[in-house]
Design brief:
14-stranded antiparallel beta barrel, Porin, disordered N terminus, globular, mainly beta, 272 residues, 6% helix, two-stranded antiparallel sheet
Amino acid sequence: MTKSPTLLLLLLLSQFCLAQITGAIPSSSSIANTSTSDSHHWTAFHNPAILGKIEKSELAVLYENRFQLSELSTKTIQAAYSNNLINTGISLSQFGYSHYQEFMLGIGWGRNFSNKFSMGVQFNYFTNYFEASNTYRAALIAQFGLLMQLSPNFNLGFSSFNPFQSNIKAEFVVQKIPSIFSYGAEYFFCPELVWRSQLDKEVSSNYRIASGFEYTMLQLVVVKLGAYQSDFLVPCLGLGLSTSAFVLSFNTEMHPLLGLRSNIGMRYQIHN
């Protein structure tokens, strides 16, 4: 078997074992992907309501590697612009290698309503490429999100990715794009220690349950510990470095069947 079919087989296997989620959706900087209620960090293609919580414009890049294969990696760049009326985010993600690739371009808007709740909407243009037929196929995907502040220490989040179940229609087949509904909770025991949990449901896959803690030491170093359950129990570890304008995040998880998965992200906040 040649290298290309082997990589394609691994790609399909990883998609199946990871609840059939497209690789173009990047992992978040939140431990165990508990990003739906993360009121401090917006990650592209997760909850667009988090855009409404951004107080400074920012730029970010993320790189995710699956199972130590560069062909199964996701690269993301995102930018958010903050103003007094509504915040805007633009993001681009690419997954795959030369024989098969997925691209997703998104633009979203979020608004904070008196710190009681924030709402967001995003539209994504999803495209895949098959080298064998030299063809591109595309679909337009909607996202909606909500973040509610029930108390100064407690937030609830909801997000939906592709709720209308858009798919890519080729000449002979239909490629299914996942429809994901996520519910999250965030609780601050103190400003330095936060706990987040999340429940995800892709309409044709099993539930995914995730939970994690993040602790900030000396207002600089962030230690993360969490896990999620979706067919397998997957432990997650992470470290971060946070200053007033710059955030560096590194997360890892160990899948018992497929191995190591890691992501690194850099975020720079711009004073408006």
